[in-house]
Amino acid sequence: MTRAELTDKIRKFIPVGTEDYVVHLLIQYKVQLRLSKPRRSKYGDYRSPHSKDNFHRISVNKDLNPYAFITTFLHEIAHLIAFEKFRNKIDPHGKEWKHEFKLLLEPLILHHQLPDDIRTAIQLYMSDPKASSCSDKNLSKVMSRYDIDDKLLLEDIPEGSVFQIDSGKVFKKGKRLRTWIQCFLIPNGKEYKISGICKVTIVENL
């Protein structure tokens, strides 16, 4: 695949203007990028080269909005660089990975036009990157504003609302318990604790 073909393929998944940066990293590090079907358990992953070839493999969920996509992609590139430098001698999300991730995020902040809320959230996140960007409540909440679906954050709907999560289960929202929210499964009333940044769909007629 030529550089131009690669750019055309990746363009619709990432923020406008970041194409050269992403394509440069793909070529420089010999990455095979796979656009994965949505996965609830993770946004992306990295696999080191097999003995039969010399390619690094990264997958990113193709349903992510552009800002979540590029943040996840850089997260996985940081794993690649940390692997090349240290192999498997370090903690996967330890200080070495955090250092590489911060270095990769800096050009995104400094040289690309991002919405102010995204830029600020990434800058705060850079102070101590988490193992998953979705585990950072502030970053996840800000990025969710740019999702193309019509779902809401659990913390933004009124107490007493009935809602459905991706698994199909239906709950009634209870009280906030710090970062978690008390919820009751319908119809048996079993209590669950669900993150306030869980994306949900309001159920109007039950």
Care to describe what's here?
The N and C termini lie far apart (51 Å). The strands form two sheets. The protein has a six-stranded antiparallel beta sheet with strand order 4-9-5-6-7-8, with no helix packed on it. A three-stranded mixed beta sheet has the order 1-3-2, covered by helices on one side. It has helices at 3-10, 19-28, 66-86, 95-111, 116-126, 137-144; strands at 31-36, 44-47, 56-61, 152-153, 162-164, 170-177, 180-185, 191-195, 199-202. By secondary structure, the protein is of the alpha+beta class. Helix 3 (66-86) crosses helix 4, helix 4 packs antiparallel against helix 5 (116-126) and helix 5 (116-126) runs antiparallel to helix 6 (137-144). The mean pLDDT is 91.
What's the topology here?
Elements lengths: L2 H8 L8 H10 L2 E6 L7 E4 L8 E6 L4 H21 L8 H17 L4 H11 L10 H8 L7 E2 L8 E3 L5 E8 L2 E6 L5 E5 L3 E4 L4
Parallel strand pairs: 1-3
Antiparallel strand pairs: 2-3, 4-9, 5-6, 5-9, 6-7, 7-8
Low-confidence stretches: none
Estimated radius of gyration: 19 Å
Kindly report how far apart the N and C termini lie.
51 Å
Structural class: alpha+beta
Helix content: 25-40%
Q: Summarize this, please?
A:
The protein is α+β, with helices and mostly antiparallel strands and 206 residues long. It contains 6 helices and 9 strands, in the order ααβββααααββββββ.
List the defining traits of the structure above:
six-stranded antiparallel β-sheet; SH3 type barrels; alpha+beta; 21% strand; three-stranded mixed β-sheet; 206 residues; 2 domains
